[in-house]
Amino acid sequence: MSTRMFNGSSLLLQDDLLHQPFDDSILDPGEEDFPLGQLAASIRQAFAAMDDEGALLVIELDKFIPLEPERQAELLDHVVGIARVSIRRSDIIEKIGPYTLAIALPGSGRIGMTRVADAIRQRVAAAVLETGELLSTTVTIGAVHTTESKLLDPDDLLLAARVNLDSARSAGGNRTNWSDYQTS
After folding, report:
1. What is the residue range of 56's domain?
2. Is residue 1 part of a domain?
3. Pairing relation of β-strands 92-97 and 5-7?
4. Per the structure, how many domains does the chain have?
5. Structural domain includes residue 6
6. How high is the pLDDT of residue 50?
7. What is the pLDDT of residues 99-131, one digit of tens each?
8. What's the chain's average pLDDT?
9. Is residue 66 part of a domain?
10. C-alpha pair distances (Å), 6 with each of 49, 64, 175
11. Which of 42, 110, 130, 156 is the most exposed place for a label (fewest CB within 10 A)?
C-alpha cells in the first residue's frame, strides 16, 4: 500500500466530533469502560506522555442495517470489545458516533498502526454477535500516522483519519486506508 503525505495546515475545517459530549447512555452499566471525555483532550494527554510518534484510527461499521438503538449499541459495543483485545493498555478508545469509534495509539509507528488496524478488521469480520438474532458486520478504517504528535492539533489529525476513512469506504469498505501526517 502506498502512503500519502497529508498536510493539515491548509485545512480550515474543525471536526466537531472531537468536541461532542459523549453519550454514555448507550454503555452497558456493568461494563468497565475507559475514561470518557473529549477525544481531543485524551489525544493531547496521551501523545504528550509519549515520543513524537503516534497514530489515530477512525473505525466505522460497514453495515448500516436499520437496528433498534439497543441493538445498534450492542453491535458497536461488540466491535469495541474486539478492538480492546487488539490494543495496548495505554491506547485510547472512544465512541464518537452511533457507528464510529476512534483509537489513539500514542507512540505507535506505522507497522504497529497497520497491525492493530488489520487485527481489528479481521477479528470483526470473523465474529458474530448473538443477541437473540445473529449480527455480524465488517469495519472500514481510516488511519493516520505522525512523527510530530506533540506539535499537531488533534482536530487536524482526526480530520486526516476521516479523509482516509472516506477513501477506504469509496473503494468498497472492509479495508484500511492510511497516510502519514506532517504539520509542515
Report:
1. 33-182
2. no
3. unpaired
4. 1
5. no
6. 67
7. 899 999 988 899 999 999 999 999 998 888 776
8. 75
9. yes
10. 24, 29, 19
11. 130
